[in-house]
Amino acid sequence: MQLKTFARKLIPFAALTPMAVVVLVAYIGTVVWSFRVSLTSSRSLPTDVYVGFAQYSKLFDNERWMLSIENLALYAVLFILASMIIGFLLAVFIDQKVKAEGVLRTVFLYPYAMSFVATGLVWQWLLTPGIGIENAVRQMGFPDFAFDWIIDQDKVMYTIVLATVWQAAGLVMAMMLAGLRGIDEEIWKAARLDGIPTWRVYVSIVIPMMAPTMATVFLLLSTAAIKLFDSVVAMTQGGPGTASEVPAKFIMDHLFGRANIALASAAAIMMLVPVLTLLAPYVYAKSRRRAV
């Protein structure tokens, strides 16, 4: 009997073993290997010639890398704010028990189901001067209308924000809607009886109660921003010039195009730092809630 009980307790651990092996080898193992390579002078192939943190010094002396960090910071702030605000407003709209709610949810969420590459190519066509949006507006009777942000070095990052927010806002809407549907209906009834304005209920009660959902959405959007690659490659190839360069593209270019795996590994390790910085407080907060 004791043997059967022990076997039953062992089954969940046995089922989780393959996933644990994948995590240890495919994730933690590759991170350790990348860090090791970043400490060498490796070019096309890994070597054992250690140079300490010289690659990290080269990395932060590289103007292209510093530009990619600046672009990523600008993109992350605008992308996260816009996605959360638009997603929340869409969720509030659908939460009003509107007609054809299922259809609207599908319409808003559908862009997220599309490939980032496909989305980027469509937006590239829409934003290219002479065709797409510019051409459509000119045909409406505005021959002097110009919309050339995608070829403007100072505005190209805003076009990438526009395209990716369009794609991500639907996912945010779905998560926010789930959070809104978790709010007790009695709160709304009490607010109506007290004559509290709807906007005040959202600001003072609903949004604070949705803090866990907001934190999850923020974490997902932050990691998506850090990984930004597909949309940039599809829309601008990092151009014009290097105006829309981002860290992920810098890494891929040096890993495959410039055969400098040590510098690419150093850049990859540096991009891991903000991800861990975001995950650490989230994991800590979850562990504290479980302990309580």
From TrEMBL:
Pfam families linked to this entry: BPD_transp_1
Domain ABC transmembrane type-1: 69-280
A GO term from the CC aspect: plasma membrane
Membrane topology: Multi-pass membrane protein
Transmembrane segments: 12-35, 72-94, 106-126, 156-180, 201-226, 261-284
Superkingdom, taxonomy of origin: Bacteria
InterPro entries in the record: ABC_transporter_permease, MetI-like, MetI-like_sf
Subcellular location: Cell membrane
GO aspect biological process, one term: transmembrane transport
UniProt keyword list: Cell membrane, Membrane, Transmembrane, Transmembrane helix, Transport
Cleaved signal peptide residues: none
Family label: Belongs to the binding-protein-dependent transport system permease family.
Protein name: Sugar ABC transporter permease
Species of origin: Undibacterium nitidum
